[in-house]
Hints:
Number of domains: 4
Number of strands: 35
Mean pLDDT: 91
Low-confidence stretches: 10-15
Distance between the termini: 182 Å
Radius of gyration: 49 Å
Amino acid sequence: MNKVIIALGILFLFASCKKEIPQKQLTVNVTPAVGGTVTPTSGSYGMGSTVQLIATPSAEYIFKEWNGGYTGTTNPANIVMDADKTVTCVFEKRQYPLSLTIVGSGTVKEEIIKVAAASTNYTSGTTVRLTPGPSDGYQFKGWSGDNTSTTSPLDLVISKATNLTCTFEKMAITTLKIDNLLDTLTISKTHKYIVKGLYSNGVAIDLSDSVKITASTSGVNILTNKNLVGAQSGGVVVTIAFNNLTLKDTVYVSEIENVDLSTLSFLTTPSNPNAKIIVPVVVINYYPTLNGIDIDTKRAPGYGSLSPITIQDLKNRTTDYITLTKYGLEEASKYRGYSNPSQTSNVSFKIVKYVNVYEIKRGLKDKPDASLSAQEKLTPVFQPDYVDIFSKISLQSLVEGSGVKEVWFSLRPLSSEYPIVKDSLTNGLTAANFLNLPESNMASPTGNVSNSWWSGIKTNNLPLPIYNKTYVVYGYNLETSPGNNIHNRGHQIESQLQSLDSGIFGLNTATFLNKFVGITIGQNNNKPLGRAGMTHFPPNTTVDYDYDNKTLVESDIEDWKPLGGTKKLINSDRWIGSQLLKYPSLISTKDDYNKDPQYKWLIFWMQSIPGYNNGISGVNDWWDLFYNWDNSIKNNSKLNN
């Protein structure tokens, strides 16, 4: 009995010494939470035991991987619990491709408006907005494939692989419309029609570069870029066509162009706004053309390197010449300015109208019939029809109402006196085209005192219309130089001052020709020498146009008085070396007329003409007599007071 008890005691002792198995914690997470479930869930498991985790995805999700305490993509996963572990089961949304096919011409804009996806496929459940964008001339027709509708835009929920076709259909243009119809087009000016085509749905398309343009006459020149250029005056019907649609526009092409004066600041601003005399001027430029782009050399040939020439190039040349003419004349009115750089202009000019004329009617002959030579009778030269031009630019109101005293008329003259014309008479040039202007021509109710063939002729059939106030037309030759323009002014000065002189030229008593110019009848072949000289003759030469003569001659030009001033030796170095200040900037003319002997001489000579406050006893302001001609005639004014 005791042995049994002892045995049981020993067995109990061994039983009480057996170790317990340790427990390990398994934590299971799911991401995203709605992506699926894992079984078993979190719990405690014996050390070293193996737990099998099974991932079950929700609808539209798939199992992706395990990470954390266990990594891998095996499902189910066997987890050995050799420690506490946290395992995360990762699910992801299914992705489906969206395949788009486009029929016709256009684009489809794809926008994710719910659940973004950074993949070429769309994540299941993503809402995609598809917006059709038809090309010009097309319209959206509808969707086909996995969705058949005409909804635009289409919001599509992606839940499977989707194939769609977007169809665009071409529309027909049913109407043409011109946004900028023409009324008047000036010769040489361009215009491009803005043509719109309207589709059946009202959408407009720009057809400006696609239309075909034709004209009923050669009045407009149609360029390859669809620009219209005014070419010849008159009415013209322009037809604009596209496919079987046409529009017509009736246009008048004008030969007169009024240039915007705001683009000519130098010409419209007197150099001295406070000058005693400010002369309003109208500028007219003649540019004959057949196509609106180039000068017609059969009506205005060039005599040098500038022919052939475009209208624009000749316009630039004209602006330069007019600029240098205005500048030179204003410099010329600075009384003895060659010795006083601070002297201001006694006379300044203001261009009040600047007109380009592209067609001119022929007026009277350049010379009276009785003065024509045998050759001139065969090839007579005509002046412009001034009455026609002047009426179109309202010159009478400008002269009588705005005080315009001068018209500067620039052109390329055409007459048989030019060698190129003589050589070309058998090559297309005809006398019917011959057109020229006098160097100066006065129109006055008191008579014509000028350097023109018609000066002094008493007839009602004169080239220029006569108004209630005097004006002078100066002919400027675009094939010579600004010096020649000043030259023409010099002859007009000579004509008017001679007319006012009280002395007798033949008796050597004339204040102007004898005492100022320096002509003594019976001496030096009746050429001036030793005093102030004249347009053709500086005081040191008796040869015409000899402006750069270095011969030293005693002259009182810088101290002229009627009975003689202080003389000193003078030659061309004196006027060529004088400095003209504020020489204007030019567009195209590269010649520096600050060095031109004729230009410099004429300015120097005119600066010697007695002006305002001349300080010479008994001598009036000759510029006032010259420019205020009507008052001079009315008051019977003379050079001497």
